[in-house]
Amino acid sequence: MEKVRLGPETLLYPMPAVLVGAIVEGKPNFMTAAWCGIACRKPPAVAVAVYQKRYTLKGIREKGAFSINVPSTSMAERVDFCGIYSGSKRDKSALFDTFDGSKLEVPLVRECPVNLECRVMQIVEVGSHVLVIGEIVESYVNEDCMKEGVPDPMKIDPLIYSPKTQTYHKLGGSVGKAFHIGKDLKV
Known about the structure:
The protein has helices at residues 55-63, 76-84, 153-156, and strands spanning 15-16, 18-24, 27-33, 36-40, 45-51, 65-70, 98-100, 107-109, 114-125, 129-141, 146-147, 150-151, 160-162, 167-169. By secondary structure, the chain is mainly beta. The protein has one domain: Electron Transport, Fmn-binding Protein, Chain A (Pnp Oxidase, Chain A, Roll), CATH 2.30.110. Strands 3-2-6-9-10-5-4 form a 7-stranded antiparallel β-sheet. Strands 1-13-14 form a 3-stranded antiparallel β-sheet, with no helix packed on it. The radius of gyration is 17 Å and the shape is globular. The mean pLDDT is 95.
């Protein structure tokens, strides 16, 4: 099969659509981000790329803390709203039922099945965006999204973003057990 050259593109799948939360000017604010992923296991850390002019970045810098909230697909409309409108022009503090972090001053979205409470470790200037790296100091998962004591991605039903088509998607099914299905491969 032939490959089509596209030049430098931000194509990495799946790309989660998450809500980044911070206290800005005394109120909870949330922005949508798709460039987010796990950065380290020890200490547990996450990295999220934030456009330099984002209102939420102001709160992240001031408080040295932020939250990553993983929305389910049923939340797509509100997640999209948070990506369209800036908190500097629209008050998004009442858009969600929020709860406070147990260790840091960060807002977390109760409706999101997964929430990560993060302390800023480093902010790296990258160009149009900064890479905010945060240590995960606490994790929260909805009880009904657990299966045998472990978070179940199918129950979490995370919202996935496709950058080139600018569409939202959902996960499919499992394709096999990691660190197991490749054991018998003959090379």
